[in-house]
Amino acid sequence: MPLNSPLQLSLPVHLPDDETFNSYYPAAGNDELIQKLRANAEGQGEAAIYLWGPVKSGRTHLMHAACAHANEVERRSFYIPLGIHASISTALLEGLEQLDLVCIDDVDAIAGHPVWEEAIFDLYNRVAEHKNCALVVSGSSSPADAGFLLPDLVSRMQWGLNYQLQPMADDEKLAALQRRAAMRGLQLPEDVGRFLLNRMARDLRTLFDVLDKLDKASLVHQRKLTIPFAKEMLHL
């Protein structure tokens, strides 16, 4: 089931085509996780991976990247963010073990909801039995600290590989910004990048959104990225 399948498109979810492994800049300490996710997407990795980190830490980017990579190598993938669990049914999980890769994002959003916890637990069991499906699950905290009511679900999540996303240093964030700018054909001078780091929220999602806004503005106004231009466009 590729990302553009009818079932995927029926979800109120936007799957950006620019969130790939190539556009992800890993912090020091996250390289092994990237390798494991690539292997999973190719059908050569672990049966289950649980990764956690705070909101806007890059978890969702990695989930999208894993699905995109699976599609590139002609494997069937499916992505579901459980932040929208109130608007969907647990029936959506039925049969997913028949796919090659299933990515479940924001799983801690269903902590304290018994029906959903049982459904995720059942999916873990079916994946373990089926053996040909890889399951990648993400949350904002470790399984033990996520607030799940079902102890067996916590045990299942701890059964596979567990990774905590390491935070990025400022120099790594600057490099990530410059890399994203280069991918868009935009030159981001170091002084402008450091200005954004000092004046904006420091998570990459916000910084990337700001960079995208400046990119569009530079095209409209036919101006290079400078600190005065950034101040003007961002009303700083």
Automatic annotation (TrEMBL):
<feature type="domain" description="Chromosomal replication initiator protein DnaA ATPAse">
    <location>
        <begin position="20"/>
        <end position="162"/>
    </location>
</feature>
<feature type="domain" description="Hda lid">
    <location>
        <begin position="170"/>
        <end position="234"/>
    </location>
</feature>
<keyword id="KW-0235">DNA replication</keyword>
<dbReference type="InterPro" id="IPR027417">
    <property type="entry name" value="P-loop_NTPase"/>
</dbReference>
<dbReference type="InterPro" id="IPR055199">
    <property type="entry name" value="Hda_lid"/>
</dbReference>
<dbReference type="Pfam" id="PF22688">
    <property type="entry name" value="Hda_lid"/>
</dbReference>
<dbReference type="Pfam" id="PF00308">
    <property type="entry name" value="Bac_DnaA"/>
</dbReference>
<dbReference type="InterPro" id="IPR020591">
    <property type="entry name" value="Chromosome_initiator_DnaA-like"/>
</dbReference>
<protein>
    <submittedName>
        <fullName>DnaA inactivator Hda</fullName>
    </submittedName>
</protein>
<dbReference type="InterPro" id="IPR017788">
    <property type="entry name" value="Hda"/>
</dbReference>
<dbReference type="GO" id="GO:0032297">
    <property type="term" value="P:negative regulation of DNA-templated DNA replication initiation"/>
</dbReference>
<dbReference type="GO" id="GO:0006270">
    <property type="term" value="P:DNA replication initiation"/>
</dbReference>
<dbReference type="InterPro" id="IPR013317">
    <property type="entry name" value="DnaA_dom"/>
</dbReference>
<comment type="similarity">
    <text>Belongs to the DnaA family.</text>
</comment>
